[in-house]
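Minutes, project huddle
Topic: does the predicted pose make sense with nicotinamide-adenine-dinucleotide bound?
PN asked that the exact inputs be recorded in the minutes so nobody has to dig through chat later. Recorded below.
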Amino acid sequence: MSTVRTINFGVIGCGLMGREFASAAARWNHLVGLDVAPKIIAAADPDRATLERFTRCVPGIRASADHLAVLEDPEVEAVYIAVPHHLHAELYTAALQAGKHLMAEKPFGIDLAANERIMRGVADHPHLLVRCSSEFPFYPGAQRIASLIREGALGRVLEVRCGLLHSSDLDPSKPINWKRQTAFNGEYGCMGDLGMHAAHMPLRAGWMPRDVRALLTKVVRERPGPGGTPVPCETWDNAVLACMVGDSPDTEFPLLLEMKRIAPGHTNTWFLEVYGTAASARFSTRFPRTLETMRYERGRPQAWSVEDLGYHSAYPAITGAIFEFGFPDAIQQMWAAFCDELAHGRHGMRQPFHCATPEEAAQSHAIFDAALRSQKTSACVKI
Ligand SMILES: NC(=O)c1ccc[n+]([C@@H]2O[C@H](COP(=O)([O-])OP(=O)(O)OC[C@H]3O[C@@H](n4cnc5c(N)ncnc54)[C@H](O)[C@@H]3O)[C@@H](O)[C@H]2O)c1
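Predicted holo structure (tokens), as shared on screen:
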């Protein structure tokens, strides 16, 4: 019988995403044949009610209001940090200095300067595995498109579109929270919140844009604060970035990145569309089973084929291939990739798609920082 390596984790920030990790770890027996498993042994959150709720879900852990308790815990091998963006640089670099492997939430720093500080920390600790959370590419449809890209099946790339669309902010009575305030979320606004989701797959494909034209909009200017008093809602709600990829007229193509908190009708729609001279493919979590592909052959009909994918996950699971895949599955698959890479290294992984790297997160900052300058100057900005 093969032994399972346990990775002892500390969680810093036990809110929405901290709980998603706890849920994924708690149902690890959903995965089949993986020889590594996470075990959460410590957690920190200064909000008492949040920490209590977390410890009820993960009993027996060492819980603290102070993140240093997790970082100084010698039994903690790796940490997951899921805190508001203004704390990323301080906490991520502290985790690296404490010698912990790190899964860190996007955007990996509140702004470019914070990201550069984190990247210095990463460079100073090359023996630690550091990855940035980005789960949507683990949907089976996205994985199939990743394979097409790896195989070079697209021919010359004509255009790529990727984005994440929400609609809950369409409700003007939705209370203010930190994600709508510049001090905590950053000037990027929706790009900080949603941007890594849009940028990850294009960046993994090597499609780093050379320039950007940004269209950023603020729709709801105030939201109810404590006691219902209106509080300024400062951050960008929606962003459309029209970028150009490629450095010669023979290879260049447009990359359109969309990040919207106010996209009517959408509930967490992540989509990726790639169009090429030899093949094209489209996937959206709106239709999570469905992959559309088209192969172009001269003289043959240009017909899209529609395929129900089922549960064909990167890491095998108990769910039969005939059933559906969903958001919690994507989160768990991402965590499987992180644990697999931590245990076996990039080249020893069971499947080829590793989690988003610090370098990819840094590239996304270069895009979003240029987008802010493009918005200010109404100009196309070189990246
Ligand atoms: N990957 C995704 O799909 C996804 C989705 C949502 C949010 N996020 C990211 O996750 C991060 C957290 O977002 P969230 O939605 O979980 O926010 P949240 O507000 O639900 O949780 C953040 C938690 O951090 C805690 N916190 C604040 N200061 C802390 C400190 N010093 N030490 C420990 N905990 C502290 C807060 O009390 C809160 O409980 C952000 O970077 C966000 O962009 C990622």
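Observations noted during the meeting:
- The first strand starts at residue 5 and ends at 12.
- The pocket of nicotinamide-adenine-dinucleotide is lined by residues 12-17, 44-47, 50, 67, 82-85, 87, 105-106, 133, 135, 193 (CB under 6 Å).
No decisions taken; revisit at the next huddle.
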